[in-house]
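thought: fold this chain, then report.
action: predict
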Amino acid sequence: MNGLDGLLGELCVEHRAVEALLRQLDLVHARGEDAVADGQRLLTELSTLLDEHLTVEEQYFYPLVVHNVPAGAALADSAVHTHATVRRLLSRAMDEGLSAGDRSRCTGALLVLLRTHLRGEDEQLFPLVRAAVPAAELRRRGESLAASRPAATGAPVWGLPPGTGAVAAVRDRLTGHGGPGRQDSP
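observation:
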């Protein structure tokens, strides 16, 4: 988060971590019924990541959108509505009483919605905010976010080791490299 973008840099790292899990879910989703346990484990991990990420966007990022981007209130409202839909779909996909076919459809819809949302933020909303908000303010917001997170535990946020670049961290996560307990292959 000490990069030039501060808050936006942190959100991008989080987006890449979510995308890495989505790729794993794609593989499990393609295997069908024989991968139910793997799918549930990944959905639980995704839920944990998204709980924090969506809250961070709503508390730190969308206020910047509302106050600095033309039509920002409508854009932020739309994104918050998408977050609510993501939460509902994720909760439904995790329902153990769901039939395999319903779970598959629900998970598929969740994957499409999340990818569309992430791509929209990365390609449209982040550049608008980057152009409208001074870099110092983005850094300050990023520092505020970092201060609000429990860094004293030494536990990596987003499963990313401290000091690791986003690209290397995602690569390590996908390949299972990076130390004990980091084997994430489906």
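thought: worth noting. Residues 152-158, 160-172, 177-186 have pLDDT under 50 and may be disordered.
final: tokens above.
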